[in-house]
Amino acid sequence: MTGLRYVYAVCRPFGTPLQAQLAGVAGDPPRLLHHHGLVAVVSHVPERDFAEEPLRRHLEDLDWLTGTVRAHQSVIDALTVVTTPLPLRLGTVFRDDSGVRVMIEEREESFRRTLDRLQGRVEWGVKVYADTAASDRQEPVETPAKPVSGRDYLRRRRQRVRSHEELWQQAEAFATRLHETLSGHAEDARLHAPQNPTLSGASGQNILNAAYLVPRGESEEFVEMVDRTKGELPGMRVELTGPWAAYSFAGEEQQP
């Protein structure tokens, strides 16, 4: 099959086959390109969609981008089951196999160093949300028979503001303690910017958005530790995602 070469990740050689019927970006199954003792996981993609100009246009098309991200991630997820991949940026494309080999040679030292650091480790994501709506529902509801006065309205308004301020303080203290605890049981940790609820679609205010690098063999204990915090504080929601390939810990080597 002709076309450009889309590169998902670089890893060390592995013997376990990828799952059957795994489709990559543009529907082409991924294959392994061995070079200098490393493996680039690639598939063929059409030039009409993945050459520089059309790719730039497509990245502004939300529907196209969503499908491409999903296909890219499905390959990374499959690799994470059988090996430790070093994921490359979405839309990493080369003209042919020779271009991929040149890329491996130019970055061989950094690839090997990062793969050594990530070997046998996975990334877990933890988010903490503060739900002000839940806090409002828990407050006593006053139901006067007649409309309240302006003074009563202002008093209730101040009470609600104070209640929300207390919730934020509790949320920040909770998130800080949780991050310190989880960081102590992980080999490395990264704090990401809080997610915008308008973009993420998640309810509540994102207080903590963190990633933790954990050895595979210690993941069960890490998950149990997170699960024990759920429901610990009213109005707080803790979400755990993973295990993922270690995107947050790939450093500069993640950038093509």
Percentage of residues in strands? 15-25%
Unreliable residue stretches? 252-256
Given the C-alpha coordinates, what overall shape results?
globular
Q: Give helix and strand order, one letter per element, not per position.
A: EEEHHHEEHHEHHEHEHE
Rg to the nearest angstrom?
A: 24 Å
Helix content percent band: 40-55%
The biggest sheet, with number of strands, parallel, antiparallel or mixed sense and barrel status, is: 5 strands, antiparallel
**Head-to-tail CA distance between termini:** 24 Å
Number of helices: 9
Number of strands: 9
Query: For the residues shown, what is the average pLDDT?
Result: 87
Structural class: alpha+beta
Give a quick set of tags describing it.
single chain; globular; GvpL/GvpF; 9 strands; 256 residues; GvpL/GvpF family gas vesicle protein; gas vesicle; five-stranded antiparallel beta sheet; four-stranded antiparallel beta sheet
Write up this protein.
43% of the residues lie in helices and 23% in strands. The chain has 256 residues and is α+β, with helices and mostly antiparallel strands. The strands form 2 sheets. Strands 1, 2, 3, 4 and 5 form a 5-stranded antiparallel sheet that branches. A 4-stranded antiparallel sheet has the order 7-8-6-9. The longest helix has 35 residues, at 150-184. Mean pLDDT is 87; it is low at 252-256. InterPro entries: GvpL/GvpF. Keywords: Gas vesicle. This is GvpL/GvpF family gas vesicle protein.
